[in-house]
Design brief:
This protein is an all-alpha fold. Helices cover 85% and strands 0% of the residues.
Length: 212
Amino acid sequence: MPDRLASLAAQAGYKAAVSDLTLIVVACAAVGGAGAWLRTGGFFWGILTGLVSGCVPIVYLVYKRSRRMERFQTQFPDALDMITRSIRAGNALSGAIRLVGQEMPDPVGQEFRQIDEEIRLGVDPGDALFRLQGRVVTEDVRFFCTAIRIQRGSGGNLAEILDRLAEVIRERFKILSYARVLASQHRWSAILVGLSPLIFGLMFQILHPGFF
């Protein structure tokens, strides 16, 4: 549980010790449970509220991770374009990664700064990219890291590979965005259909009070 909590925090963009995260969860559970127990006088409600309160930080981290992943996926094709241009200009991959960390906004900039820092500290670039996959769990990042590992092992034109990958990601993002719009429209239509009997019933009761 503590390791999963630390992984969730890293994916949400927070750098915190496992002990601090565990303390926050326990503190929320204790405060919520004690408050409910003092308020209601019931041990059951205290335990139930404590469990719910302890989940609040976890739910918050899940929400922040989701928003962060969405921003990352939006920015990632531009980061790949920047790496491609830097490599074609004669820079090494490490220099291209450093450039992305300096020029791109967060969360892409933050993640690539961390990769650059790890490489400078002597971490193998392959290991640094493997850690990136743990912090940013998306297919795009997995394809990116796999392409670099293959290129490092067997050679090839990395700039061309990343150029094609950026194009594929953009096209897939357009399709997914269109699908989300359609799903949202259908969801609201279903909500309106489901609520229509209640709405019409309330309107009828207001217009003809005492009819039922």
